[in-house]
What does this fold into?
Amino acid sequence: MIPENVSFESATLGEPLSAVYAYQENIGITFGDTIVIIGAGPIGCFHSQLAKLRGSTNRNYD
It folds into this structure.
């Protein structure tokens, strides 16, 4: 169930973002890492934003 205060648009972002989070946890992205992200779709954008929050330097290619 989706709580009434959460829009359908916001609810649809939960699974893809949790997958990106789990992937970055598994490979151990940390402050000071340089990572390459191939693709500028929704998943690539999530990877880029989350990696920046973790303190990494990103190289994005589409």
User: Anything to note?
Assistant: DSSP finds three helices and two strands in the chain. The CA atoms of residues 34 and 57 lie 5 Å apart. The longest strand covers residues 34-38.
